[in-house]
């Protein structure tokens, strides 16, 4: 490899995404980036900054404001040997591309009996917390987790964003890669640009504990870790698991933790009904019911569209909400 920075520097999640894209495009000339404003402007959040200058307009493609077209282009490119990384500017704009994701990207391998695959990545910012209108603040990951043939990955730290995005671009099948917007510039951490991939389909245990398991992903990992620190002050040992890959789920890791602690609280920013938290809870009941010492609790956003920014903090699950759920579980008679 040449012209890649391998020094250890502190980087935020947004910078880690940019670093991974540079690395992937340098390693493989079949990787192309496309989306609205990804080239000249470097993306609405500047996640693709510098890519066009380095790799040229044929590999970093500014598209019209047409998510349906972006989705169709990406599927066609992937089926013919390229590795497109398409950007949807906000997750709430993805619905126009759903036809291509559900009816084509997810089914190509099955439909052609393995003759074709669809090695594409769809990147999109997700979630509330940046004082934006509703369609800029969606957390609809459960929509994609329900579709056979799609992987769904949501990093919660710069290091995981870097390693998981590289692994997603390598994957021979379509990956939905959702980036929590309010974590974009939060909590930089040292990252070395060494190209190391992290495993897809795996959870990450962020804190070891023995009294209760806290399960989360994406931006809500931030509040979950805050709650775990408060529990520690109260003498409660909380294990914190970042699900990271919500489709497929690493149920073995989750089961092992719940069997150890006997208690579980699941936290996510997406609406409650039919959320991924419900799937995790049901799976844990099936696998580890007799080891549970209390019913599993979920801490989620309500079943409403994301509100305007004055009410965002009431919508997003807070550390206090998580602690209240933990109190119910820990004191269950």
TrEMBL record:
InterPro entries: THDP-binding (IPR029061), Transketo_C/PFOR_II (IPR009014), Transketolase-like_Pyr-bd (IPR005475), Transketolase_C (IPR033248). Its cofactor is thiamine diphosphate. Keywords: Oxidoreductase, Thiamine pyrophosphate. Pfam families: Transket_pyr (PF02779), Transketolase_C (PF02780). The keyword Cell inner membrane does not apply. SMART domains: Transket_pyr (SM00861). Residues 11-186 form the Transketolase-like pyrimidine-binding domain. It comes from the Bacteria. PANTHER family: PYRUVATE DEHYDROGENASE E1 COMPONENT BETA SUBUNIT (PTHR43257), PYRUVATE DEHYDROGENASE E1 COMPONENT SUBUNIT BETA (PTHR43257:SF2). This is Alpha-ketoacid dehydrogenase subunit beta. It comes from Metapseudomonas resinovorans (Pseudomonas resinovorans).
